[in-house]
Amino acid sequence: MSSDFLSRRVLELEPSATMAMNAKAKQLAAEGKSVISFSVGEPDFNTPQHICDAAKAAIDAGMHGYTAVGGTPELKKAVATALTRDTGVEYKPDQVVASPGGKYSLYLILMALINPGDEVIIPAPYWVSYPEMVRLVGGVPVIVNTNEEDLFAVRPEALEAAITPKTKAIILNSPSNPTGQIVPPEVIGEIGRIMEKKGIWCISDEIYNHLIFGDAQHKSIASVSDYCRDHTVVANGCSKTYAMTGWRLGWIGAPKAVAKAIEDLQGQTCSNPCTIAQAAAVAAINGPQDSVKKMASQFDRRRGIIYDLLNGIEGFSFLMPQGAFYALPNISGVFGKTIGGVTVTSPLDFCTVALEKAQVAMIPGEAFGAPNHIRLSYATSEENIKEGCRRLKALVEGTL
User: Residue 15 pLDDT more than 90?
Assistant: First the structure.
């Protein structure tokens, strides 16, 4: 059938590389192959029991209907308190909008701020969905490359050079997917000063802000100055911190007028987020945080293991992540080599061979604006990390 009836925005949309690779891995697993997947950024922990209990109690209490579009009063209050604690900026409930997931929250932010033709600066490497979301709302993604020697933090001079009269906003993600790095507080301060100088906004994706390791420090750009407070929209949610990816509950913190606009948009698209998930989120935010610390400790241990193993593969070099649960090794050292019968010239080549020959699923760096890298999620067991890295090493050495 012809696709002429589809809209141009859909025809021009790039499918998610993460979801595509995960689908291939699942297909191989269904065929009986022993697949180790490093592809999806999803905690491999169960949602804590007290959160599940709160959801069950909400069902038993008859919480089966619609709520206010932007979330229940209890949830808005809990999120406002959490945002105030985490960002160092005071948020009130009328500055909060709860949505069906952090991803949808980001899309609503762009819908509320970006007009057709507006430019949005995105430091690379970036999460795969940022450029596509910008295009979907009619904006123009402007990619600013970063360097490994800077731990992938955007250089202020490079950011300022990319700003034009059409620039409306910059998207920051710290801790980062896919790099696992955190933008240093001093760089956050410089970015904030440039924002004020140039009169632009920041969309700050802080979904991994509770998964930080060692001495690394996360600073929300909203806290840099009064201007930044009034021109930053923070996105966060339950998925990573509380292992609640399937519950689809995210939120934004924004200046009141922006929050109202986002709530209006949501009211005309999906109405309120899931009522039961909202009750669970209140329990997650207000309840004990022991499970968060335990999960972060496990990720910290795993990053040390995968750091040692990946750096032990000839042609790989890998920076120690500071947060989240992603590894982004540079594999340019294997380009030009014949691996698994294929001459590898790109991350896509290597990931394809790794899946076919070693049954290891990863995401090629091209999807993240990282043409020399591959991304692995170490949100999987230590056994899987060790076996997956063993297979990769054997594949590269030709002993698989």
Answer: no
Q: How many CB atoms lie within 10 A of CB 31?
A: 8
Tokens 């191989």, residue located: 28
β-pairing, 342-343 vs 201-205, is unpaired
Condensed to tens digits (0 to 9), the pLDDT of residues 132-163 reads 999 999 999 999 999 999 999 999 999 999 99
Give the model confidence (pLDDT) of 351-395 as tens digits.
999 999 999 999 999 999 999 999 999 999 999 999 999 999 999
Please report which confidence band the pLDDT of residue 33 belongs to, taking 50, 70 and 90 as the band edges: confident
pTM: 0.95
Spatial CA neighbour of 113 closest among 177, 193, 204, 224: 204
> In a 3-state reduction of DSSP, which class is residue 76?
helix
At residue 2, the pLDDT reads 64
In whole angstroms, what is the distance from residue 214 CA to residue 102 CA?
A: 26
d(CA 277, CA 238): 10
pLDDT band at residue 399 using 50, 70 and 90 as cut-offs: very high
Is the separation of the CB atoms in 69 and 266 below 8 Å?
Answer: yes
Angle between helical axes of 275-286 and 49-60 (0-180°, round to 10) = 140
* Cβ burial, residue 257 (10 Å; 0-12/13-18/19+): exposed
Q: Is the dihedral of CA 101, 368, 148, 154 positive or negative?
A: negative
Q: Exposure pattern of 323-333 as b/e (b: 16+ CB <10 Å)?
A: bbbbbbbbbbe
In angstroms, rounded to a whole number, what is the distance separating the alpha carbons of residues 301 and 305? 7
Instruction: Specify whether the CB–CB gap between 108 and 137 falls below 8 A.
Output: no
In the chain, the amino acid numbered 244 is M
Separation CA 344–CA 341 (nearest Å): 9
Cis preceding linkage at 141, omega within 30 = no
